[in-house]
Amino acid sequence: MSDQNTNHSKYNELKSMCKRHIDTYNVLYQLKTPYNEDLISIYKVIKTNLIDSMKILPCNIVKGILDIIPYNKRYAKTYLELAKIIVDEYHVKNVTSIPFISNFLFYKKYGIKLHCFEEYEREDIDNLDKLEENTIYRAIMYDAIETFIYFIEREGFKKDQKHYRKLLYLCCYHGAINCFKYLRKNFNLEITHYCLESSFLGRNPEIVCECLKYQKPNDQCMVNAIISHNIDFVKLLMNEYHLDIDLYECGHYNNIESLLYYYEKTNDYNKCFINSSIFDIPSLSEYFFLLGANVNAKDHEGETALHLAARFNCRETTELIISFGANVNEENKDGATPLNIAAEFDSPDAAKILLSHNANDGEAFYIAASNNSKAVIELFLLHGANVNGKDNTGNTALHIAAIAPSNEAAEFLLLNGANPNEKDKYGQTALHIAAEYNRKEIVEILLSHGANVNEKDRNGQTPLHTAIYNLNRKICEMLLSHGAKVNEKDKDGNTVLQIAKRCQYQDISEVFHSYGVSK
């Protein structure tokens, strides 16, 4: 039997082994179910195929569902409802590394923060809201050509090429072939590389073919083809345009079929082993390992299969890879171990297994504080981490949380014994740090937990001095309202009022005046 036939046989074997996963995520990514229609039946498929049969963590499935929303906004409500069913059924509390828009929409709809966020892009949310209204955007989403033409022709419609180009892009994104043809025929619009890239997300072969006549596909086209879960697009780009299949993105967007096709074409079991760990299907990782994959093989970022399993919180696969002899302290190009990665991406299940196998915790506790990884912080504290311990630069986890800022992490640390007045090597407390970096929420948290508003650093400066030097008016107001003393002098004998006057900080001087301080 030829190598080609052998590889194809292995491809079919692996595809059969992963059939439940492939079929389920193909349904999810190519969803065509309106809100509240057949939700329970889809949930039952997820439960049977992924949770019960494959033992995939419910939190990872919620992440997998919410990852889809930016690429299939038409069914955002359905994805949110599916995620909510799983969250309720399995008491999911924390889901990390999900798109901001998905996290925010879930919070907006259900009042539940699956993971902490500070700010959001108003434009993204507004654009999604427009899909609910009777607008031209909704007409494109449903390829309602008569409604689309009505908006185009009515009085007051914005008639310029830039706006038409945006509409053409949206036609590609939503696969709206009739609206696409109308714009091309009537306005002589150029097909850009953005049109081609988005056409793979729209999954309309006719639009894809038309765009390929005018633009050469790039790596983003391959990523979008992977996201589309259309294996024909992936094969086209690999075979006709010689683009590599990005195996990391296959894992990120739960596209096993594309990873298996890559293996069939290349026989690169090391690369497939590394990236197969993202799916958290132990039998898949084991298959590539038994073919001869090096358990400590690295990708272009210097990451092993264990790094990726830790990044995506793959509990079962983390355990399996370690049992194969993986080095739990292997470093990537940036010097990060799998435990560091688990701390960065708030992967408590993977972190717990790594700690049980004597992974060196090193700076991981402080990395967790920097990335607002509350679940991993809790795990480290349960394993005996000193909440007031200092890293190799003299900062406590609370100092680091103040810099980041990591609001939820800071609150959690304080609730678990962190000293709000602990000082770094410069004599600064977390309140000094928050005042310097203009972290208003952190300042509020620290003050509510007893931070000394008049504590001095080694230069004799209080947090109010720091806020003034950094022109942080709002912080000054907050500190003054909590009893900050304006006559405290630093080592050079300067009060905050003298500094404001000498430096002509008019804005800050007005704050003092509003509090009745003039000299």
TrEMBL record:
A Pfam entry, by short name: DUF3447
ANK repeats: 301-333, 334-360, 360-392, 393-425, 426-458, 459-491
Span of domain DUF3447: 187-262
Top-level taxonomic group: Eukaryota
UniProt keywords, alphabetically: ANK repeat
PANTHER family on file: ANKYRIN REPEAT AND SOCS BOX CONTAINING 4, LD18443P
Record's protein name: DUF3447 domain-containing protein
Species assigned in the record: Trichomonas vaginalis (strain ATCC PRA-98 / G3)
Species classification: Eukaryota, Metamonada, Parabasalia, Trichomonadida, Trichomonadidae
